Amino acid sequence: MTVSKRIDPKVQQQVANELGLYVYMLVDPATGIPFYVGKGQGERFAAHGNDAMLNDGDDDEAGAKINRIRAIRAAGGEPEIWIIRHGMKNKLEYTSVEAACIDLLRSMPVLQKPTRGVRVPEGISDQLTNARREASNGHG
């Protein structure tokens, strides 16, 4: 039997309130590979898991995402939600960040994490030679 890991609703609401406008991605916990990038505010980051329980995934994009979430849950996992950037000032900014993430992930391979390895944000930062992160201001 698959047991879904539930976040305390009060904690989830507090996190949502502090994020402001944000860009996030859903990551397969078994492989460490992202399968969806989205933007949102409030509790949007949690909506896809609920959709997977309630929706039959009629359209292609939603269907692929929902099917992926269901497959992860059937294997005993839960999709990871990574906040890529938060605290953005307007919808133009978060739409631009979302588009850049999608473009990057569609053009660069993301390799499966090693067996029993853990992939965390900033976990392979030594892969880039950039000394600074420009204007992330702690929001990336």
Automatic annotation (TrEMBL):
This is GIY-YIG nuclease family protein. It comes from Glutamicibacter bergerei. Pfam families: LEM-3_GIY-YIG (PF22945). It comes from the Bacteria.
